[in-house]
């Protein structure tokens, strides 16, 4: 008996790529990169995937979430056409090592596909900056109690 197996070549395309950088242009390895605004078609895909995976909420790598590599690079594959917002975030301590600090950046991008099935990739560098401290109406910063 002859066994026949047919292989199909799966071709993935990078739809969004970029780098997570600090204010001096150095890579920020380990930055969490999320797609925070996505088209309805992609939301439906995420809903289906989330319902099939018990650990969905805690995964570092998902179609809408990734972690910047050691060189700060990140990418998202095979996204449908539409408008997206890409957000990078990194948590850490201030210079004194006492207060929790969050560095963030976000940017809106659009993805399109041509008639031949090729994606027009969006390339984005996200320069992470520290979130501003919340202020009272008096203009004085609110200091969290530690």
Describe this structure in words.
The protein is mostly beta strands and 146 residues long. The chain has a single domain (14-130), classed as Carboxypeptidase-like, regulatory domain (Immunoglobulin-like). It is built from 1 helix and 9 strands; from the N terminus they run ββαβββββββ. The chain has one helix at residues 40-52, and strands spanning 14-21, 32-37, 65-67, 73-77, 82-93, 100-113, 119-120, 122-127, 129-130. Strands 2, 3, 5, 6, 7 and 9 form a 6-stranded antiparallel sheet that branches. β5 (82-93) and β6 form a beta hairpin. The termini are far apart.
Counted up, domains total: 1
**CATH classification, class level:** Mainly Beta
* β-strand number: 9
Q: What global shape is seen?
A: globular
Q: Helices, strands, pairings?
A:
Elements lengths: L13 E8 L10 E6 L2 H13 L12 E3 L5 E5 L4 E12 L6 E14 L5 E2 L1 E6 L1 E2 L16
Parallel strand pairs: 1-8
Antiparallel strand pairs: 1-4, 2-3, 2-5, 5-6, 6-7, 6-9
Write a brief structural summary.
The protein is mostly beta strands. Helices cover 9% and strands 40% of the residues. It is globular.
